[in-house]
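anyone else get weird line breaks when pasting these?? whatever heres mine. first is seq + tokens for prot A
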Amino acid sequence: MIQLAATLGAMSVGIGAFGAHGLADILESTGRTETFETAVKYQFYHGLAILGCAILSHQYPGRSDWKWAARLFLVGIIVFSGSLYVLSLTGVTWLGAITPLGGLAFLMGWGWMARGASKLNG
């Protein structure tokens, strides 16, 4: 999980920089600069969340909640950020219909984290 979090963090920085410099003209012409930036931010935030899951998983090794949360965060990154990246670069607007499913995966991941935390004190 730590390697995954580190990879996602590094990818966020690289994709963000590439978007700001190498893809600026394309994103500007499609009017999707903000959409692309949103994808990068959510990937980065949830990469950090996966790092948190890794730390919690190490601290409380007998619990699977953290692993499930990390999996849901990864699904969210793939679906939410991935669909926004493709939408931003291609203009394929029907992908916007699946983006909320990635957001739902993010919410479920946070729910799994809360579930794991609730088990610690009772």
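and prot B, same format (seq, then tokens)
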Amino acid sequence: MYDIIGDIHGHAEPLKRLLLKMGYEKKGDGYRHSERKVLFIGDYIDRGPQILDTLQIVRTMQEEGDAIALMGNHEYNALCFHLPNKSGDGGHLRPHLLKNIDQHYETLKAFKTEQKLYLDYLEWFKVLPLYFEDDKLRAVHACWDDERINFLKSAGGNEKLTEDFIVRSAQKGNKLYAAVDQALKGVELNLPEGYTFKDHEHNIRKEIRIKWWEHPANFNYRTYSLGPSDSLPETAIDLNKCQVRGYGQSEKPVFFGHYWFRGIPQLVKQNVCCVDYSVADGGLLVAYRHDGEQLLHQEKFVYERV
């Protein structure tokens, strides 16, 4: 039985309250339940005020067998931010652009006098699996797609990531890049020529994050978007440009985070559940208490406000 907890982003205090609310007891630097485990969905760092405390709780629980901790795009970005780009271009795998530094700033600040500890956590990030699946459920940070997940299985995506794996996964244009990018950052769809929008960080975007669990034939660009949609066209989606075909009703339940949902937690579908409700922007830290059911239940959400 798993309690699936969404993106934390350095908000350790609501995490502690959430664990206690669900019956976990303080055990050293972590928390333990006599009958259950936590499944953390990724994104432990960046943005929040208690990044070191958050990492200590999650890592302790993972190492003591009280939790499974998945990789989020922010942990993956931290690895790429740190690793040098050994190609002729130099620099780092994730360029140190102002927007990237800004996104990672709170983490860098938290570790500014703890260089060895920072390197130690980077090594720990490498052991975080890119997805989880058992006979009852699936979990991934942003998007479950059978073809991409199966490729990650064959490529060692649930083993400790080597530097070679990370370098290859950061190079656009190959299958490993596509698989990691989709699992950790979701699916994006190019807008028709001339259309843009601002995301939650006020960046101008020409691509929309889409509701990958739905079939695009039933939507237009405005209704298929997961972000701000008022400025988007209501024209039909070109199915040749959108390769996803939704998540089937007969598939086992899938859990994910990443998308900054808002309001009171709601099931996406009866077997599809997002547990990211914008804790880093004054929202909720959310968990779903899964007991093996195929059809998920609304009343099994538990959450704490910041």
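btw re prot B: The longest helix spans residues 51-63. Residues 188-243 form one domain.
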